[in-house]
Amino acid sequence: MHHNAASGTDDSAPDVVVVLNADDPSGREIVRILVRNGHRVVVCGRHATDLTRMLHGYGADQVMAIAADASDPRQLRELCRRATDRFGTVTTILDAAGSQMPRLRLAS
Questions:
Q1: pTM higher than 0.85, yes or no?
Q2: DSSP characters for the chain?
Q3: What Pfam families does the record tag this protein with (predicted)?
């Protein structure tokens, strides 16, 4: 949730954060912190099995898992589309591995 400086009000909808490479220890910790702070989180990694394990302990209204290769712009766009369909507009994309991702226009 964040403060809207233009209107001077707090937006009531939680932020939607996509965490790429979420299926490693640092990614799991990032997800835990984001959920604890009230964000909706979409976890992405290349292996569905690892991502499915990450969902344990979280509600479907908190976390969604999508297996994808985020270095592929088409898969990243599809990931963001699915995240938006489920939780609303994606506000942040984090790469838990810290690598650089290709630039991508999210809105068309």
A1: no
A2: --EETTTTEE-SSPPEEEEET-SSHHHHHHHHHHHHTT-EEEEEES-HHHHHHHTTTS-TTTEEEEE--TTSHHHHHHHHHHHHHHHSS--EEEETT-----------
A3: adh_short
